[in-house]
Amino acid sequence: MARNVGTKDAVTRGVVAVLLTTLGVFAAIPGYLSFAAILVGIVLMATALTRECPVYRILHIATLRQHHHRA
């Protein structure tokens, strides 16, 4: 699969992932929302690290700048 997540997008996903996971782990969010926050945080971190987002692929979106090399 080709990458489709740009640098700014990946950094934002990483920051939000850490925030959600931290809130979920330390029970700052009540009940099942805590589990959901952790799950979403893990998914966001995975997409940030791999720079691939399946939802972007389905919607034909890419925040990664493509560099075209001239020969």
Q: What do these coordinates show?
A:
The protein has 71 residues and is mostly helical. The protein has one domain (7-59). It is 62% helix and 0% strand. The protein is built from three helices and no strands. The protein has helices at residues 7-25, 32-50, 54-59.
Topology, element by element:
Layout: H1 7-25, H2 32-50, H3 54-59
Helix pairs in contact: 1-2
What is the count of DSSP helices, taking H or I runs of 4+ residues? 3
What do the pLDDT scores average to? 91
Number of DSSP strands?
A: 0
**How much β-strand is present in the residues?**
under 5%
Instruction: Write down the secondary-structure element order.
Output: HHH
Can you summarize this structure?
The protein has 71 residues and is mostly helical. It contains three helices and no strands.
